[in-house]
Amino acid sequence: MSHSRPHIDTAGRRARLGRRQLLAGGHRADRVEEVAEAVVGLHASDPATVHLAACARLAEPDPAEVERALYDDGSLVRMLGMRRTLFAVGAGLVPVVASSTARAVAAKERAGLVRWLTEGAPGWDERRLAEAEAKVLAVLGGRGAATAAELTAEVPELREAIVVSPGKPYQATVAVSSRILRVLAAEGRIRRGRPRGGWTSSSFRWTPGTAFAEVPAPPAPEARAALARRWLASYGPATVEDLRWWTGWTLTATRQALAATGAVEVTLDGGTTGVALPDDLGPVAAPEPWAALLPGLDPTTMGWKARDWYLAPDQVPQLVDRSGNIGPTVWWDGRIIGGWAQRANGEIVWRLLTDDGGSEAEAAVADAAARLADWVGGVRVTPRFRTPLERELSR
Q1: Which domains does the chain have, with CATH numbers?
Q2: Keyword set for this entry (predicted)?
Q3: In 3D, which of 213, 156, 168 has the Cα closest to residue 187?
Q4: Cis peptide leading into 299, omega within 30 of 0?
Q5: Residues β-bridged to residue 292
Q6: Mean pLDDT, the chain, as a whole number?
């Protein structure tokens, strides 16, 4: 360990987490835009996660507040960005995410689509693809919003399908509509609109968007530095590998972005080398002890690649699926202590996997569960990515 580097211990990291990610009771937000700002972006692969994660951090949890930002005001924008993952980010951050990650992701998605179509479907080439996309945009321009089924009914090209892995046990028939709409969304040319059902629904309408290529944005290196700075302010101190994993950048791009922020090397507990912003090296007062029930794929639980400082390795098999997706978790004072689920009758149930915190933690978790049950009401939430403990508890 180098004694010339500042040291930030695990307690200091947990204090920052509770305060800056709005999980400690006295630090919750009034508006969902503040939540998105605090965590940089809300995971949006599972539509329920956006609402559950936001409401866990709102002083007055209400799904309508999230819907206002997503669908009425447009102040929260879904983007396929970091790690090719769908995030909901504040509108002001869209140019930074577009330049730092989303444009590169969209370019790869388009190249993959062109290759898939031209190799798997006779008669498809880039010209026909462009014509089909123009028809989709024209329909949306006329209607204002449409589901994938409604678009398919009006754009004949979307009705075609391609057999994937022919002759293999996992052979499948895939509609070209899903791939084409995904690429248009990745480019920002269309956006996910209001769902057809409630806030947990995966059935939604598409609306016209503005292509990210047309959004005035800083050059990519400058945008990566801006995103790295925002991430460190919320998730630092952390390791270079944490940021590389979270963004999906190359190691070289990650190091260059960190250098541009002026990040300082620090030591973390266990002798690990981390980085922190130069104005974030001093002690941070711990908030009052807090408990939270966070959803699967919550931005905090998925915020770092190295998680031992808040997730005990022996809990991983119960709380993480085989693809690395973290399910619903119970938190106490900056670390995960268990998991939770909702049963078919709507009851919120949980299990603590450690006795850390004792009776104080148990009481606080019960209060957090009651708070969650109160605002969820009669809505039934089933995580898209299910983990062993969540499955067991939900029975």
Answers
A1: 112-214 (1.10.10), 291-394 (no CATH)
A2: DNA-binding
A3: 213
A4: no
A5: 331
A6: 96
